[in-house]
């Protein structure tokens, strides 16, 4: 008796016996060693565009494109089922195929559940602000799914390159009322990066066979980092303000002369101010963002500002915050008003203090970029190069030495020829 060959085939067809109006349901028949298993694709489409030989729709209507996407997704799921069986060294027969295919591989099979899994697995190692950004990405994804597919959630294994590209386009205003953009190009890329990281969790757990987000090759726009020059700094320092705005201005200037970020300044206490090796006051802290230790001597303007806040810190009270910081949003609103009153025509934010420290305060005065990087608490010198611009004045000063050398060389050459 001949052994039956373990052949496999998967064929799609339109079930005409269930046609309603002009549309019929789409099915797939999996055959293994002569045994059949029919899969309902849960999708109906017009018979007119169906190409039985190619097993897909030949038209270009939105319905036919969606139907072809369903076919592609189902093919991927079938191949993934086979891959799982081979990985387990299980016999590939109809019974095993059907059990594996119909089994919910994970309770985290939808976007909502996968983001919840991410919060459980990775959330504890992330900063609260970063976790909030992942929540924003999740909300935007679910809003896109509702607009595009009329669904409240979406299967993770159904996400493909087209889904990712359309989500990216949606963030840029594609198919949105009034074509309003939800975010900038760089902001959209941040959401795509977070989606990629979450999808990598699904990939690592074998819930998907490939990460479709890896197929997106969009590039970020280079953004010029704003900073204040010396004249603009003087305007802000000297402008007459109401007391509440003056307090915000002084805290901003302290960050200008130290390069401290908003969150690190919020967390600063008296214990972060110490006497350094030169017997002057230094500021020591570990950056919340990177965990790197930062240590730098206080410049005279920073010391003067610090002394001005002594009344806020009663003597003997340990752990009291150095500064009465407002929320980041409230601080930035105040800074915009301060800039307006001072006649500074720039969109001033608290983070601009860091850029100003890197450029106007340090690099412009000849501080090596390696030292600036250490004071900013950057893990990479490349990051500092993004923040820090070499100003025209610094270029002029550096090139003047070279110009003088050439001038001397030319004058000596002329003298020798006379």
From the structure above, extract its key features.
single chain, 418 residues, mainly alpha, DNA polymerase, domain 1, hpI Integrase, Chain A, 3 domains, 3-stranded antiparallel beta sheet
Tell me what you see in this structure.
It is elongated and about 95 Å long. It has helices spanning 62-87, 94-102, 111-121, 128-149, 161-171, 185-204, 230-238, 243-256, 262-266, 300-308, 328-342, 352-362, 369-376, 381-387, 392-417; strands at residues 8-14, 23-32, 35-46, 50-51, 56-57, 273-275, 281-286, 293-297. The chain has three domains: 8-102, no CATH class; 111-215, DNA polymerase, domain 1, CATH 1.10.150; 230-389, hpI Integrase, Chain A. The protein has 418 residues and is mainly alpha-helical. Helix 3 (111-121) packs antiparallel against helix 4 (128-149), helix 4 packs across helix 6 (185-204) and helix 8 packs across helix 12. Helix content is 49%, strand content 11%. It is built from 15 helices and eight strands. The protein has a three-stranded antiparallel sheet with strand order 1-2-3, covered by helices on one side. It has a three-stranded antiparallel sheet with strand order 6-7-8. A two-stranded antiparallel ribbon has the order 4-5.
Rg computed from alpha carbons, rounded to a whole number of angstroms: 31 Å
Strand order of the biggest β-sheet: 1-2-3
- The helical percent reads 40-55%
Low-confidence stretches: none
Largest sheet: 3 strands, antiparallel
User: Secondary-structure element sequence?
Assistant: EEEEEHHHHHHHHHEEEHHHHHH
């Amino acid at each position: 008796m001949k052994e039956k060959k373990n052949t496999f085939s998967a064929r799609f067809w339109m079930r005409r016996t269930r046609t309603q109006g002009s549309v019929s349901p789409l099915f797939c028949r999996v055959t293994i060693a002569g045994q059949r298993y029919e899969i309902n694709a849960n999708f109906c489409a017009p018979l007119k565009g169906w190409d039985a030989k190619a097993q897909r729709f030949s038209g270009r209507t939105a319905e036919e494109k969606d139907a072809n996407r369903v076919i592609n997704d189902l093919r991927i799921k079938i191949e993934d089922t086979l891959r799982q069986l081979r990985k387990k060294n299980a016999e590939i027969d109809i019974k095993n195929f059907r059990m594996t295919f119909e089994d919910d591989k994970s309770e985290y099979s939808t976007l909502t559940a996968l983001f919840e899994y991410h919060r459980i697995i990775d959330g504890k190692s992330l900063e609260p602000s970063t976790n909030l950004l992942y929540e924003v990405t999740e909300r935007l994804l679910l809003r896109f799914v509702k607009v595009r597919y009329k669904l409240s959630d979406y299967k993770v294994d159904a996400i493909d390159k087209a889904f990712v590209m359309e989500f990216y386009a949606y963030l840029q205003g594609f198919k949105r009322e009034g074509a309003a953009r939800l975010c900038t190009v760089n902001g959209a890329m941040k959401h795509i990066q977070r989606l990629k990281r979450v999808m990598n969790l699904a990939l690592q757990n074998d819930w998907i066979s490939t990460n479709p987000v890896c197929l997106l090759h969009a590039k970020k726009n280079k953004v010029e980092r704003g900073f204040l020059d010396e004249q603009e700094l003087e305007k802000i320092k000297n402008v007459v303000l109401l007391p509440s705005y003056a307090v915000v201005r002084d805290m901003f200037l302290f960050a200008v002369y130290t390069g401290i970020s908003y969150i690190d300044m919020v967390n600063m206490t008296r214990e972060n101010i110490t006497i350094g090796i030169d017997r002057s006051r230094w500021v020591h802290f570990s950056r919340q963002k990177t965990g790197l230790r930062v240590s730098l001597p206080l410049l005279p303007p920073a010391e003067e500002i610090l002394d001005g806040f002594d009344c806020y810190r009663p003597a003997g009270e340990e752990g009291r915050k150095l500064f009465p910081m407002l929320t980041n949003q409230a601080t930035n609103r105040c800074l915009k008003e301060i800039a307006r009153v001072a006649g500074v025509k720039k969109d001033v934010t608290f983070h601009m203090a860091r850029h100003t420290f890197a450029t106007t305060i340090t690099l412009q005065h000849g501080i090596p970029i390696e030292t600036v990087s250490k004071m900013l608490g950057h893990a990479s010198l490349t990051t500092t190069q993004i923040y820090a611009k070499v100003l025209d004045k610094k270029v002029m000063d550096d090139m003047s030495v070279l110009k003088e050398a050439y001038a001397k060389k030319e004058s000596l050459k002329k003298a020798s020829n006379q």
